[in-house]
Design a protein that fits this description.
Blueprint (H helix, E strand, L loop, with lengths): L1 H13 L4 H16 L5 H11 L6 H15 L1 H13 L5 H13 L6 H18 L4 H12 L9 H10 L3 H7 L1 H22 L10 H26 L5 H19 L8 H31 L2 H12 L3 H18 L2 H18 L4 H14 L8 H10 L3 H24 L2 H10 L1
Helix pairs in contact: 1-2, 2-14, 3-14, 4-7, 4-13, 4-14, 5-6, 5-12, 6-7, 6-8, 6-11, 7-8, 7-19, 8-19, 8-20, 9-17, 10-21, 11-20, 12-13, 14-17, 15-17, 16-17, 16-18, 17-18, 18-20
Length: 425
């Protein structure tokens, strides 16, 4: 019976239906075929899917990203990073990585970070003679760091549907996120040397550095407020999201003066509309969670793994391959919401730490943003850079490969993920 559900789901997606529509229709048809429960279960399960207080943090983090984009803070961060790493060959590529690491501490969304950073850096990279495919590729790849370093909207999803500590998931993403930046930088070093981009020499004048720091200090404090607020338990996740928006809004209105009061309703509306697209998926996932629980899919999968005699190494390898493949053909949100709760019990029975498994699933699916045919970041960057999608696909693969190397290191060296959570929480 459960096979019918997933066949219908993929069939509807293949026919061009939206993710949430496909999930809702396939779930309804499944219940009608089963005939053991009333269709009233549709309403109750969809309400329970969004009746979770922690989900309130998601629209606020999305709003934080919108405010950062519109306030000019991204440009200030780019100027700050350019002063230090812009002096190297292909310096603006390193700037893209550094700025995405900093922005990751605010929005937690890869698409939001890519849109903000690329709109600033792509024109600057063009002026300095970088070819468009290279510029678009590194901006797309660097944006993947956004949902790995805390706060992370996908990790909020994982925590909400599984009951895992969101704080531990957040902290588990710190080292992998920094490693992603390091491995991307190493790939950039190889690529830019081969392309022989010019080196821009800039003096590190103390007076210039002081003025630059004075101009960017308020921007740099935003991610620190968010991360320390959650880690130290001073405020809840929702409260820190609200606090971050309040801080960014005050700085933008009264310090940088880059947002006017009349623009605020439009920014709030844009974040609200985008949030609804996430919440409707959570609603239909509530229906899927009911079906998966009633079919005891987790227990059946555990028995199958026991029959196959899989060890932890093999299970994690298969899980990585599965989620990388699913990330190629589906959006990350429904994949993690549907399959993570199913695979988590099997992982824990094999001795895999739940936080470790949650973080590697997120890394897998964020890499999927760079892989065709879906590749949301590829479509976004191709549009911003005015490139053919296929051209960008041909140039982004070295950076995708670098991120996959980080994934497998984190998969088989669990302490890369668990060291900080075990140290602090």
């Amino acid at each position: 019976m459960i096979l019918i559900l997933f066949v219908l789901l993929f069939l509807l997606i293949g026919l061009g239906f939206s993710i949430w529509t496909s999930m809702g229709i396939s779930g309804m048809i499944y219940i009608l075929i089963r005939g053991e429960v009333s269709l009233k279960i549709l309403a109750s399960t969809m309400v329970s899917g969004v009746d979770i207080p922690t989900l309130v943090a998601i629209p606020f983090f999305m709003l934080a990203g919108e405010l950062m984009n519109s306030s000019g803070i991204t440009r200030k961060l780019a100027d700050f990073a350019d002063t230090f790493v812009g002096r190297f060959r292909g310096g603006l590529a390193y700037v893209a990585i550094v700025v995405n690491v900093i922005m990751a501490g605010v929005s937690g969304s890869a698409v939001a970070d890519a849109s903000a950073v690329s709109s600033v850096l792509l024109p600057a990279m063009k002026e300095r003679g970088y070819d468009r495919p290279f510029a678009a590729s590194i901006n797309a790849a660097a944006a993947v760091i956004g949902p790995i370093i805390p706060p992370s909207i996908p990790m909020i999803f994982i925590g909400v549907i599984s009951g895992l500590s969101i704080g531990r998931l957040f902290l588990g993403g710190v080292i992998p996120g920094l490693m992603m930046g390091l491995f991307l930088a190493m790939t950039v070093a190889i690529t830019t040397r081969r392309k022989n981009y010019p080196v821009v020499k800039k003096p590190l004048d103390p007076k210039i550095l002081f003025n630059l720091l004075k101009d960017t200090i308020f921007a740099l404090l935003a991610p620190i407020i968010i991360i320390l607020g959650v880690v130290w338990g001073i405020v809840t996740l929702v409260e820190v999201a609200v606090l971050a928006n309040f801080y960014i809004l005050l700085v933008s209105l009264f310090v940088y003066r880059t947002i006017r009061f009349k623009e605020i309703p439009k920014l709030f509306s844009k974040a609200a509309v985008f949030s609804t697209s996430i919440m409707i998926i959570f609603a239909v996932v509530g229906l899927y969670q009911y079906i998966v629980a009633s079919e005891q899919l987790g227990d059946k999968l555990g028995l199958l793994i026991a029959d196959l005699n899989l060890n932890r190494f093999t299970f994690l390898l298969m899980a990585n391959i599965f989620f990388l493949f699913m990330g190629c053909i589906l959006d990350a949100v429904p994949v993690m919401l549907i399959f993570f709760p199913v695979l988590l019990p099997a992982a824990t029975k094999l001795g895999v730490d739940p936080t470790h498994f949650g973080v590697i699933v997120v890394i897998n699916l964020m890499i999927g943003l760079l892989t065709p045919p879906i590749g949301a970041l590829l479509f976004l960057e191709a549009k911003i850079a005015d490139l053919e999608f296929e051209q960008l696909v041909r140039h982004v693969w070295p950076y995708t490969l670098a991120l996959i190397v980080v994934l497998f290191l984190c998969t088989y060296i669990p302490q890369l993920i668990l060291y900080i959570p075990n140290l602090i929480l």
